[in-house]
Design a protein that fits this description.
binds NADP nicotinamide-adenine-dinucleotide phosphate; 10 helices; 38% helix; two-stranded parallel ribbon; alpha/beta
Length: 304
């Protein structure tokens, strides 16, 4: 079946904007709800894309959005939350409660196709609240009897508007030296354009239904290597010092409370206790040819 009208929840964010643009380029009609219209200003100009202000946690609003769609993509996710067991309230709301509400609304509106965004390393017994809550949300989606779900688990995603290499570059333009925890953690960064392509290709492909895909780049890097590359590509390479665990947790505690929201949290450090690399437990999409970081990052980091 070909799906023509797609509701993209979280379509205004970094990855969502690329998925929305790729869907629009493929001729799909796209509806993007956002809490603040201005946040999705960059999508207004895209043909076939309709941006609407809506609270996707409100069942009536969700029903109205789904009534105009024949498939839905759920990308909502947060990186930080207050504490809780097995996870904190913000993770509960974004990663668990929203999937629950989405499943119920899809049932009411007879929308049966759903692509879901999970994360590499999501695990109900994982070391961080983020990983545990992401796993719970994915399970809710996959267990929904009437939904044809495909779930994706990317490693950390890079691209011109990323909040990861850009932040590493910015920090190095401001500080003479970087002292951070988790520098030995491993990542397999994946390009945002490849992630968007995987979503758009899967949408109309019945072979992907009920499957979970890992999305990883061609190379594994330590956090220290990534910090170094971000410094080199942005023209401000700085020495990187790894902090011992106790100091790293103290630093994260302070960074949780900086004005403008957490820069880093103790839960982020917990996530880094397990390497963020392909597990081999799930396949990659058919024909997966990931873009090397070296082919893209130098250009957009040069702007720093
Ligand atoms: N970036 C990565 O490296 C990475 C790696 C693995 C997995 N992921 C997953 O990919 C997804 C998208 O990540 P991203 O980096 O694109 O995130 P992002 O830029 O922060 O965008 C998040 C999106 O979710 C929406 N959202 C967030 N909290 C919400 C809430 N409480 N209620 C309603 N909408 C909410 C935002 O909409 P508004 O317009 O309303 O703000 C925004 O569109 C997330 O699920 C994330 O866990 C990301």
């Amino acid at each position: 079946m070909k799906y023509e009208s797609i509701l993209v929840i979280g379509g205004s964010g970094f990855i969502g904007s690329h998925i929305t643009a790729a869907l629009s380029a493929a001729g799909k009609r796209v509806i993007v709800p956002t809490r603040r219209l201005a946040r999705a200003r960059h999508l207004w100009v895209l043909p076939t894309v309709q941006v609407v202000e809506a609270d996707v946690f409100n069942p009536q609003a969700l029903d109205r959005l789904l009534s105009q769609a024949d498939a839905v993509i759920n990308l909502v996710g947060v990186l930080h939350s207050g504490a809780g067991t097995p996870w904190g309230p913000a993770f509960e709301r974004a990663h668990v409660e929203l999937p629950r509400r989405l499943v119920a609304a899809c049932e009411r509106q007879a929308v049966t196709r759903c692509l879901h965004m999970c994360a590499l390393g999501a695990d109900s017994h994982g070391p961080s609240m983020y990983q545990r809550s992401k796993a719970a949300g994915e399970r809710i989606m996959l267990d929904a009897a009437d939904l044809k779900v495909t779930s994706f688990r990317p490693s950390v995603v890079f691209g011109p508007e990323d909040n990861f290499l850009n932040m590493f570059a910015k920090l190095q333009s401001l500080l003479p030296v970087l002292a951070l925890g988790g520098v030995r953690a491993k990542f397999q960064p994946v390009y945002v354009g490849d992630v968007a392509k995987a979503f758009v290709t899967a949408l109309d492909d019945p072979e992907t239904i009920g499957k979970v895909y890992e999305l990883t780049g061609p190379r594994v890097y330590s956090m220290k290597e990534l910090l170094h590359l971000a410094g080199v590509y942005s023209g401000h390479p700085r020495p990187v010092i790894g902090l011992p665990d106790s100091l790293a947790r103290l630093q994260a505690f302070f960074l949780e409370h900086v004005p403008g929201g957490p820069l880093m949290s103790r839960d982020n450090l917990d996530s880094m206790k397990s390497d963020n690399v392909a597990s081999g437990l799930y396949p990659v999409p058919v024909g997966w040819q990931p873009t090397p970081l070296e082919a893209v990052a130098p250009e957009y980091l040069a702007g720093h």
